[in-house]
Structure formats: structure tokens, C-alpha cells
Design goal:
11 strands, Ependymin, mainly beta, outer membrane lipoprotein receptor (LolB), chain A, 5-stranded antiparallel beta sheet, 0% helix, 154 residues
Amino acid sequence: MTATGTIAYDAYGQRVRIREIGLVGNGTSFMDGLLLFSQYTYYEIDWKRFTCSKWKLVDDFFPMEVPKDAKLTAQVVMGASSFGGMGVLVNNWYGSLPGNGMYSYVFTEIGCIPLTFTTYTPADGWATLRFPRDYGLRRNWKFVGLDLVSFHQC
């Protein structure tokens, strides 16, 4: 499956809204989900059928932060470093995930703003979460390609 979409992330309210369009074989799939971690509840909205399914979340909230066990790979300038104000100093962090997996996260040096999350596990393969260029200008932070939780139907 190949998919793209948007995600609104609310760290204080521990909420995530996912809207996704994907290609599965010769078909197209649409997904609109609301994850309420403080209530351990996931709602999946089907706009085609005008239905809403409620599921139980079994994972805890995933904070967008540098993990405590992360190791610094490098500090680099993204963009142009030749002219003042044209680049952003970033830190690239890496570490291990359960199940023989690994991750690489990129955050800005000033403000520790997340830019890119990449994960790999043998079971799920590669997943990349990339923030848009106008990240600091949006009230609802949006990005693409997130698969952070698992859930079971109530």
C-alpha cells in the first residue's frame, strides 16, 4: 500500500487527526481517523457511507520529541549556509526500536522543532513523516506518512 495524507497533532490534548488516501492494488482507499489518546479511543470516519466506527486504542500517546536514548548522528545546515538566514541548523538523531527496528529523527537546533521522522521495522518496513516548509506558519501542525498506533475494535 502507498499512501499520503495530512495529520493534525495536538501534544497538550493528546489528540491526532489522520486523513489519508492510499492505493491498494488497483483500488483507492480513503481514511479519516481521530485518535483520542487520553480516552484510549479511535474513531474512523467513512465519508462515502456517512458512518463512524469506534475502536479502542491499545497504545499510549507518542510525543514528538527526541527520545531519551537517542544518539546524535550529525549537526548540519539544511538549506543554504552561504547567506545569513537562508539555512536551518538541525540535529539528526538515531536509535533502536523494539523488534529489531531503528529510527532517525531530525529536529531544529533552536526550538527543537521536529522536521523528519523515519522508522524501520522488519514487520512494517519503512515509514517517513515529513513536515512541510511552512511548518512554523500553521496553527495545526500537519505532516505526511504516520503509522504510530495499533488498535482493536471495541
